[in-house]
Write a structure and sequence with these properties.
- The protein has 694 residues and is an alpha/beta fold.
- Strands 4, 13, 14, 15, 16, 17, 20, 21, 22, 23 and 24 form an 11-stranded mixed beta sheet that branches.
- A hairpin with a 6-residue loop joins strand 22 and strand 23.
- It binds pyridoxal-5'-phosphate.
Length: 694
Amino acid sequence: MPPLADPMLFDPSFELTSALCVKSTKSWSVQKSSDLYRVGGWGAPYYKINSRGNMAVRPFGAKTAPNDEIDLMDTIREVVASQDNITMPLIIRFPDIVKNRMDTLQSAFDRGIARHRYSGRFQGVFPVKCNPDRYLIEEIVSHGRYINFGLEAGSKPELLLVMAAMCRASNDAFLICNGYKDVEYVEMALVARTMGLNTMIVLEQLEELDIVIKVSNQLQIRPVIGVRAKLSTKHAGHWGETSGEKGKFGLSTSEIVQVVKRLRKVDMSDCLQLLHFHIGSQIPSLSIVREGVSEAAHIFCELALMGANMNVIDIGGGLGVDYDGTHSSSSDMSIGYNMEEYAETVVEAIKDATVQKNVKQPILCCESGRALVSHHSVLVFDVFSAHKNGGTGSDRGISYNIDGLPEELKYLRDDFARSLDNGDPECILMCAKKLKNESTRLFKQGLLGLEVRAAIDELFETVSVYVGQQKNDSSMNLVNQNGCDDQCRPREAGSDSSATYHINLSIFKSIPDSWAIGQLFPFVPLHRLESQPTERVILSDLTCDSDGKVVTFIGNDKFGAETANHLPLHELEDDKPYYMGMFLGGAYQEVLGSLHNLFGNPHVVHVVPSKSAGGVRITKFLPGQNLANVLCAMNHAPQLMYENLKERVDNYLREGTLEKENAEVILMSSFSSYTYLAPDKHSRAFHQNKFIYS
Ligand SMILES: *Cc1c(COP(=O)(O)O)cnc(C)c1O
């Protein structure tokens, strides 16, 4: 009986398939990696693969000079060299990308305004809920000073944050107050007006109007009021629930009319100046933008005609990001338009309504969050081990000689042997399954030893991989016959094993949307991209939670598939780190992340191109949370913990069972260490990065 897993003996097409793969491996190129990971689709103009086969950043987008490109592997080296004992994961921020996004948004609207001879101007605000990081907000405010860029808050802490930050903004910049409000919120927003901050209180609920009228009377401060309209326009994607007449937020048309009447009665019609709406995040297509903005623009005009002092229309957020790089308007993970087209559509729709109703053209405000900050950061992490499912062929023959097999199982073993001779894969699988089921049953009754059960489980595993491979090969041959024979999917010659790579990261901390709502992000190795990735991988994180994994990825075939159930990656090399990046996660992920298993915030570095050609300069290093930090977050008191442990340590030192040097491991270093895995300080490896075969 020949070893089953040698595919040449069972699969007549093997030679052909293998020959194609070998040819393709040799002619692999950086361009092929770029196509495989769709870097041009989701990453342009900020990300590319450079000629060294590394991921590189172009911080100024299309205007980036070749000397200003930042090699991400150089960046990691620089960070590791500049800080003691730094290990992954790491968030790398590129402040220049945020500035470029702001400029691109501003100029898109400026151009739309010029093209349509629109008489209002554009003023953006950044919704801080998207990423409330102090330094990010500071960058946005300082860069936005000359374009009157403002901020949006949706809660009291955000309001305080925004008020303090906007002390450095231009006086005309908007400070938009959204979210549910109580008396204290309204007081803060009103007093801010008397400090020269341009706060606009947007009513989310009818009840808030009473609070605003009462507090403004008490404080004798005239408010600037906006209303948030609940539009009938809805989008079907994940965030579409925000919108539509049954949406969670905003006032219905009848409530809006009541607001106008109430304000008229108390002689405050001049205070109502802004109309706000938000169709929902990640709007997939321009037709929805056009419909929603038109509906809102007509509400705006009607309010003006009813005597309100309308001069700002705030179109909310929703400008999307092309996560999967397909430029498609039919998927949650993509968008079928760019910033320029978005702005053009908005300006045109508002212009049309105002011309039709003969109303003064308002200032255009937009609260784009996702589209401004998604691109500016990269989450860098390493792979600490790999677990390959099934064998590679030559070293993994199927042997059914199992020592100590009890009599009751021998007939099933013989059936299995006959099925091997027969060669029908389905039949082989079925016989192996029977053997496995029966052995499990006997084990549960205490009639079978663990070693025998393990041998049978292993046999079954090998057989299922073999059968899966047979099926895959036949479908692959179909593709080949259809003329796509240079399409050599990343797979090891002669096997279709998929591997699980264990990543030094918590999905719950760093990519929560992947777990919570199935959001896809591009994952790409940061190096070795000049060579072909040969493994088909799923990712598994550090948490003790079966949900802590990524099993769906953006598509990676030539046919434009929306998703893939594996990520092509390189085989790990002994003692060498394998670095990967998660891209487009600059919006929402950091703030939504949780402390599951007490994995804390990763380190953050800010990076800009250095003056010397092709170099990088680290402008900020913000250490991630250590063990003491995350324990504090759950109300533990590291000082008390230390004292408890110290008392115990001292007792055991006295008794002589504990050595002094060993005690220091607990008392000296542990509280200040990073929450993630660290490679061995001496070998710089986690352990031998060899594949572990199941
Ligand atoms: C969340 C939110 C935004 C930001 O939306 P993006 O899709 O990230 O641009 C803007 N405005 C309001 C009211 C929001 O709730």
